[in-house]
Amino acid sequence: MLRLEKRPVPSKAWTIATPLLAVLATMVAGGILFAILGKDPVEAIRTIFWDPLFSEQFAAYSRPQLLVKAGPLILIAIGLSFGFRAGIWNIGAEGQYIMGAIAGGAVGLAFYPTAGWYIFPLMVVAGAAGGWAWAMIPAILRTRFNTNEILVSLLLVYVAEHILSAMSFGLLRNPEGHGFPGSRNFKEYDSVSNTELIANSGMHWGVVAAFIAVIFAYVIMTRHILGYQITLAGQSPRAAKFGGVNPNRLIVLCLGASGVLAGLAGVFEVTGPAGQLTTDFNQGYGFTAIIVAFLGRLHPVGILLAGLLMALTYIGGDLAQLMMGLPKPAIQAFQGMLLFFLLALDVLTNFRIRFKKSEAA
Amino acid sequence: MTEKLLTIDGLTKAYPGVVANDKVSFGIDAGEVHALLGENGAGKSTLVKMIYGLVRPDAGNMTLMGNAFSPPEPRVARAAGVAMVFQHFSLFEALTVAENITLGMENPPKHRELSARITKVSHDYGLPLDPERLVGELSAGERQRVEIIRCLLQDPKLLIMDEPTSVLTPQEVEVLFHTLRQLSSEGTAILYISHKLDEIRDICDSATVLRHGVVVDTCNPREKSARELAEMMVGSALHEPLRDAQAFGDVVLELKGLSVPSATQFGTSLKSVNMTVRAGEILGIGGVAGNGQDELLAAMSGETPSADTTVTFDGNGIGTLGPNERRALGILAAPEERLGHAAAPDMSLTENALLTAAFRENLVKNGFVDWASTRTFAKRVIKEFDVRTPGTRTAARALSGGNLQKFVIGREVLQTPRVLVVNQPTWGVDASAAAQIRQSLMDLAASGAAVVVISQDLDELMEVSDNFCALNEGHLTRPHPAKGLTVEEIGLMLGGMEEQEAANA
Amino acid sequence: MDLSAINPVLLVASLMIAATPILLAAIGELVVERAGVLNLGVEGMMIIGAICGFAIAVETGSPLVGFVGAAFAGAALSLLFAFLTQIMLANQVASGLALTLFGLGLSALIGQGYAGQKPPPTPRLDLPVLSDMPVLGQVLFSHDPMVYFAIAMIAATWAVLKYSRVGLILRAVGENHDAAHALGYKVVRIRILAIMFGGACAGLGGAYLSLIRVPQWTEGMTAGAGWIALAIVVFASWKPWRVMLGAYLFGGVTVLQFNLQAAGVSIPVQYLSMAPYVITILVLVIMSSSKSRAALNAPAALGRIFHATH
Fold first, then answer.
1. B55 with C310: Cβ contact below 8 A
2. What is the pTM of this model?
């Protein structure tokens, strides 16, 4: 019989190995899923993980896309990782991301068609503020009324989606858009367009922000007392209180940080890759970022790598859809599976598995 | 010779890295009160868990009433007539007494019938209980009654009691002993686990002494002195801490009319607590578990803020200050719960050193942690308090209870506090480490600090304190000089009688 | 706008329909949480129930078989959660989220061929006398059987938790798993069964959406119903009859909002549609801020990981 035995100290080796194992296991299970769908599993896995980077035919287009998709994922996941480490579960990043995009986008549209260098920075600030404000709702409800932040932040995603829909049908609709929903195209408005910084690299301001966030988070987590307090509060709330950590302050800080970063991701996305505010510009990055945060072990460098990998599954999934007719939802199920395997294998970090003769459990 | 009720022969159980029981053998007669004596970690708990079917032995046999006995689970042990009262009660606070008892029975009768039986049995044995009350509302002593009644309703042949008196006042202990004698005269055997030697000499007919998982001796405890038993248990001569008489300085910390409502549903509120402690003084605060000890420590450490003037330090109101602000003044604390309160279980000793020493030891500069200095401080604690650990990277939960407690106390003492508040400083700590911890508290007071020791161990309090108060349901009694207090007087204080007498006068 | 177009009889009748999916999912989650487990995967189990129930009903032509299939599908998905949290000791919050994300993806995958199809109709109850009563007959006695099944589930759950030994053991496990283990109860086994019951109920709730309430299959059609069910369990302070109250209140808000839309109230549709979510949040705030005992009624071991050390 299989028995779990708690390790005296969490295993460092397994901390690094489990995400890799989880990716491998997901490839195997995903391959089986694809085989059931009648696709050649080896070809599907190759199309998803290899072709976007190395196939002569597609790499030129796909490689830049890697950064384009990884940027918002990393940015949002870094924000989430603070809260997740502290045991504060903001799972409504999607809503904060949408509200950031709306707030930032609205500021830009308000200036239309004025030209000026200051407009884009203003939009970025507004986007951060929008995401922050949306995250403050669960934060304040939690600190003032002890309301569960998981449910509130999640329910607010649906509210944000309806606001987005109201905006793209109403207030922010392109007056020259022939009645179609959606805002003006930011790409055609030079002062606000978030274009590629280096040609064919996919690098835009959002990706730059993501890299800065990674470095910033790394310093906070390893060197700053705040990072220590966040980890402490997550592992042992009572010890944290004894150590003088104010739990409410931490809730406001962590939710605020994830709101700001999600809002930034929103404004960079809408002015760059998406180009306009539409009812479905958001692509669910706010939810996928949860997987990225866990896959990256809530560690900044891990999140950077996990974000790139998850971006690859998006691009590879599109490619597989195009080349093999693999249905789009298959990739979503594939990403969900990855989180499953990660959580299941995580047990190895904290426990030893022993095989033993029957023991009264 | 009559056949033994239970015979244990060569029971062995090993866990990774430690042999908890090594070929343990002894026997119990019907109606016998048999003590199982040993220090923390001697293997007493493992042994009774094997008898009760919670743990399966690696080797050895048991015989109960002539039949081979190897219970795969507690259900089987209970069916065979073995019942157990745990040290940490396995009770459900949000359920009623009757529901709790039903859960522990194999074939429970209908609710109404059960309630009637609970009322009857509890009166027959002098342990009255209301079957419809929520267990969360009961005192520790009453909770123990629930456990005992649960066992008695099944007519056990053998009743195992794990440290039953640790949660009782001396008067409640008398009631319990009366019940146990009554049971024993009716033919129920009792396996009595304790490290309190006077108790064992008082009630037990025979004793098996365990040390490091091995049976050292089986004897009649009434024929041995407490000192002989203690040396059998520890395996060496005891070192008794010594304390010079002290002159006290000014009042350092004072509580005035401090009332704190309970934070949790089943917690205890502090009711108008008054307390002073002077430089160089050790104030001992006794009390049965759950009478407001945690709350009192939290009010002093700053975890629970209160009105400004209810807590004063050097005459200045500090009630609203948080833990770190109080640490800056020199008020340090070591809570009872080592893992999860005084220390974060999964964090390394270095990180745990930072937990309380961050600001007083200047380990944080401009918000950034100076990990090198933190490690140096952690190493100092480890060295000066003889903490047995592979190094500063070890996680707190990997340390034994005694070693972690030495680390926690050392971490506070080395920050040269002006006031140190400790709760249960030696709970679950082996005798030599306990002596060491007590000595360090006394040395700290001798160097001029004010020390508040909250403890449920009266022997410990009598040993270290200059003055003694008792906590009862959130009330704190007036202090009495510890020298010359009788057990009788202490019992009355713990039971809250003193206050009532004062009120009647 | 013409508020007189809103017919109160129809309103009450339709709120019972609107509430049923959430009622089913919430009563299942209530049992799971009373056993001390927080499964945030309700949304995922509901949508899997929605598509599996729909697909099976379409293929077999029988809504009943569809519902049974949905219950099995929900329970099967919940087993993944049970494996992660009870065997592999994974974090319950993260595992529940994983279940939702995976369920949404998998349901979309299964549902590829089913968009735009019509499911076989579920017959309504036609009780002689009762259904023919004026007003009451229409409000209370002419629904499909699942509406009554859901109410029966509430009653049954209440009775089992309050009066039966199984219910007592379940509550004990949710209150203090270590004590329950010490008494020899199989904590993990009991919790896995509770989780599967929760999954089956969520699956039924999802199938009710796709087979009766909407009735058709669209991707992501649960639209947060699972999360609202979770909120309703908190609102109900873990008491079965209050789950029913919460679900019907929510149903009322949803139906009223539709009626207002239909009556042409001069508020953009989107703002009306967000009303159920906003009101759920408000109710959560009110419930959690009151320091009454009801608010403290949460099972003490909720969300805590159980690992038997011996």
1. yes
2. 0.87
CA distance A204 to A274: 12
Please state the domain count of chain C: 1
Q: What percent of chain A has pLDDT over 90?
A: 53
Pairwise CB contact (< 8 Å): C176 & B49: no
pLDDT score, position C292 = 52
**Mean pLDDT (chain C, rounded):** 88
Task: Tell me how far the alpha carbon of residue B339 is from its chain's centroid.
Answer: 15
Tell me the pLDDT tens digit for each residue of C97-112: 899 989 999 999 999 8
Q: Do A141 and C93 touch (CB under 8 A)?
A: no
C217 is a domain residue: yes
Amino acid sitting at position A84: F
Domain range summary for chain B, segments of one domain joined by +: 6-234, 251-504
| CB-CB contact of A259 with A153 (8 Å) | no
Which CATH fold would you assign to the domain B6-234? Rossmann fold (3.40.50)
Any CB–CB contact under 8 A between B80 and chain C? no
Q: Are C231 and C280 in contact (CB under 8 A)?
A: yes
Q: Which of C175, C180, C184 sits opposite B94 (nearest CB)?
A: C175
Angle C119-C122-C128 from CA coordinates, rounded to 5°:
160
- Which residues does residue B368 pair with via DSSP β-bridges, in sequence order? A224, B365
B445 neighbors B246 (Cβ within 8 angstroms): yes
Q: Which of A89, A290, A336 sits opposite C105 (nearest CB)?
A: A336
Please list every residue in chain A whose beta carbon sits closer than 8 Å to the beta carbon of residue B321. none
- Give the chain C residue whose CA is nearest to the CA of A142: C285
From chain A, the residues in CB contact with C228 under 8 A are: 155
This model of the complex carries an ipTM of: 0.87
The answer to whether domain B6-234 and domain B251-504 are alike in fold is yes
Model pLDDT for residues B409-428, shown as the tens digit of each residue: 999 999 999 999 999 998 87
| Domains, in order of start, for chain A | 65-307 (1.10.3470)
pLDDT tens-digit profile of B227-282? Answer: 788 778 777 654 454 555 567 889 999 999 999 988 776 778 899 999 999 999 99
Rounded to the nearest angstrom, the minimum Cα separation between C146 and chain A is 27
Report the share of chain B in percent with pLDDT over 70: 94
Low-confidence ranges of chain A (pLDDT < 70): 1-2, 355-361
Q: Which CATH number fits domain B251-504: 3.30.450.20, 3.40.50.1820, 3.10.290.10, 3.40.50.300?
A: 3.40.50.300
Inter-chain contact A239–B368, Cβ cutoff 8 Å? no
What does DSSP say about strands B467-472 and B475-476: parallel, antiparallel, or unpaired? antiparallel
The Cα–Cα gap between A269 and A276 comes to 9
Q: Is some CB atom of chain A closer than 8 A to the CB atom of B360?
A: no
Contact C105 A151 (CB under 8 A): no
Judge: B323–A231 Cβ closer than 8 Å, yes or no. Answer: no
